[in-house]
From TrEMBL:
Keywords: Iron, Iron-sulfur, Metal-binding, Pyridoxal phosphate, Transferase. Gene3D superfamilies: Aspartate Aminotransferase, domain 1, Type I PLP-dependent aspartate aminotransferase-like (Major domain). The keyword Metal-binding applies. Its cofactor is pyridoxal 5'-phosphate. This is cysteine desulfurase. It comes from the Bacteria. Residues 3-367 form the Aminotransferase class V domain. Its EC number is 2.8.1.7. InterPro entries: Aminotrans_V_dom, Aminotrans_V_PyrdxlP_BS, Cysteine_dSase, PyrdxlP-dep_Trfase, PyrdxlP-dep_Trfase_major, PyrdxlP-dep_Trfase_small.
Length: 383
């Protein structure tokens, strides 16, 4: 039995998206910037996909959607596009639980003289909106807080945080890569100026993403050249990937309500079946949580015989794909910075695991995974 429980890392490309990509490769392969018929066929594909992606997030103006190579580039374009418009370093605010696409970009800005405030989180991984209120300064250029945390599944109070930033006249960005296609997003009502999403997190192809830019927000481009994507992202568009992204976005919007409720039931079933395992601690907020996301850490992790990486390998041998939070660099296992920020010990932060569900996951898959994980932990955990 093969069970894939790593949908937060990537999702399988759905057949409808593949079919759209194949049509582009065969018939609409022109350069979208060319004025002749071949180019205009490709341009039509890009603009149709832009409308489709805009529909997923309820953006009334499709030109607010800028295609990128993925969520990481969208995050970088948001942060650097704002900060590079200043002639002197200013101040930005992020959280302690950002994706590395944000946290590493902020670290780079610090090297250039920018002041970066990192908002702490509680034991469930949530930012306190009052902390944002206190952290804002007269020279704050941007606030960026992740919408749904990929490692522990916690959803942030984005509406409240965005309203606070707005009340101070500060731009607000959110990385919604894990949320888009799994929960409703309405950028016309949500107080965000910039929002990042990624194709391969919602059953589209890898290599495509998008940044929503609220009309009136001005960005400096990261990539200069031919002026594609409203002048914000030069370079010939990856038309096949964009076409697949558009189809996946449309289908995600159609399936959203039924699939979200189904995933929540499966998610809660897996949490319940693993609740009685000694030393296996649920992480993240159980109420404000991504619908497909289950995560734990190991109380007795030691980084050698027992760690999140150990469980990934053991379950892989059983045909089950999960992921771990701790990172291995230079041969040494480092504790998860996300779990450390939430107050877990270094040992526990070596034992973070994540199981993320998707379209093909069934009740039988959940039950089998719970049984296998219990057996593995019984064998590995010191008695």
């Amino acid at each position: 039995m093969q069970i894939y429980l790593d949908h937060s890392a990537t999702t399988p490309t759905r057949p409808e998206a593949i079919a759209a990509m194949q049509a582009v490769f065969a018939q609409q392969w022109g350069n979208p910037s060319s004025l002749h018929e071949w180019g205009q066929r490709a341009a039509t594909v890009v603009e149709q996909a832009r409308v489709q992606v805009a529909g997923l997030i309820n953006a009334t103006k499709s030109e607010s959607v800028i295609f990128t190579s993925g969520g990481t580039e969208a995050d970088n374009q948001a942060i650097m596009g704002i900060t590079r418009s200043y002639t002197a370093p200013q101040h930005i605010i992020i959280s302690d639980v950002e994706h590395s696409a944000i946290s590493e970009t902020a670290r780079l800005l610090e090297m250039w003289g920018w002041q970066v405030t990192r908002l702490g989180v509680d034991a469930k991984g949530r930012v306190n909106p009052q902390d944002l209120e206190v952290a804002l300064q007269n020279n704050t250029a941007l606030v960026s807080v992740i919408y749904g945390q990929s490692e522990v599944g916690t959803i942030q109070p984005i509406e409240e945080l965005g309203n606070i930033a707005k009340s101070h006249g500060v731009l607000f960005h959110t990385d919604a890569v894990q949320v888009a296609g799994r929960l409703p997003i309405n950028v016309e009502k949500l107080p965000v100026d910039l929002l990042s999403i990624s194709s391969h997190k919602l059953y589209g192809p890898q290599g495509a993403g998008a940044l929503y830019v609220r009309p009136g927000v001005e960005l400096v481009p990261l990539i200069c050249g031919g002026g594609q994507e409203m002048g914000l992202r030069s370079g010939t568009q990856a038309v096949p990937a964009i076409a697949g992204f558009g189809v996946a976005a449309t289908l995600a919007a159609v399936e959203l309500s039924t699939e979200t409720s189904r995933l929540i039931q499966l998610r809660d079933r897996l949490f319940a079946q693993l609740a009685d395992i000694p030393g296996l601690i649920p992480t993240g907020d159980r109420y404000y949580r991504l619908p497909h996301h289950v995560s734990f850490c190991l109380e007795h992790a030691d980084g050698e015989k027992l760690s999140g990486k150990t469980l990934v390998r053991q379950l892989n041998l059983a045909g089950i794909a999960i992921s771990a939070g701790a990172a291995c660099r230079s041969g040494k296992l480092n504790p998860s910075p996300i779990l450390l920020a939430m107050g877990y010990s270094e040992k526990a932060a070596l034992g973070g695991i994540r199981m993320t569900l998707g379209h093909d996951i069934t009740v039988a898959d959940i039950d089998w995974t719970a049984m296998v994980l219990k057996q593995v932990l019984q064998r590995l955990t010191p008695q």
